[in-house]
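subagent[fold] <- orchestrator: predict structure for attached chain, return tokens only, no commentary.
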Amino acid sequence: MKVLKVINNNVISALNEDNNEVMITGNGIGLKMKLGMEINPDLIEKTFNLDNDNFNHKFKRLVENIPIEYINVTADIICYGKEELAVELNNNIYISLTDHITYAIDRKKQGISLTNALLDEIKKFYPKEYLVGKHAIKYIKEKLSLDFNDDEAGFIALHFVNAEFENSGANLALGMTDLVKNSLDIIEKNLDLDIEFNSLCYDRLVTHLKFLAQRIYNNQNVEEETQNSIEILIKKYPEIYKTSELIKEYIDARFEIDISKSECAYITSHIVRIKKSLSENS
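subagent[fold] -> orchestrator:
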């Protein structure tokens, strides 16, 4: 491989044997290297095959000032995630997750921690991605001696969820937009609610509906709640549960899929939170 550009002492843009641009990392690999020089393969630690100019440019800009160990740790986590999830991930995860982990490490060193408000939803609806996140924080501790909690595992899991979604194409994006918009319309009209679009409860509901759209696209179902739990919700919040069933009917008609009672129960729980939030702020 030959040097295209030295990004820094540890990162080089290069041409591989197929004349395609790749990014290469290695401790000190960029020292004394110039355009057109052959790269010693023994110095290469990681190779990133990047498939479009816009992505290449963003990745180069990102890694210019990031320690090589952060880049390599992130690449290892992504590699592990691909194998465990057995799915294709959008290449943007190399940018988003590298940037996120760098920022998380900076926060950690400053003693700043963030709470993941969606952690319960992530664990419930994306257990495989969450386990990848758990592996990631364990791996970061092993390689960088930094100890992160489950909130960070959830944040990392979401990057894998997003990378799966971004690789699913326009049909999912359109279907997701349709599902979220029409579900919110059903809730507002049937319950005469004016949902606050800046609220955390709104964010949770929309995230849940996006997760639901992706599960529909991937033909995935959540584990069933106990019948007793569902019956309690129906008795305690009959009007709200009926609204969730209207959403179920819409989804059946729009996507030709029969979602479970558990899905109705989860949607009901989110609407209950929104109603309580509205009453507390009125």
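orchestrator: received. Logging for downstream: Residues 136 and 187 are 38 Å apart (CA to CA). The domain at 66-167 is CATH 1.10.1790.10 (PTS-regulatory domain, PRD).
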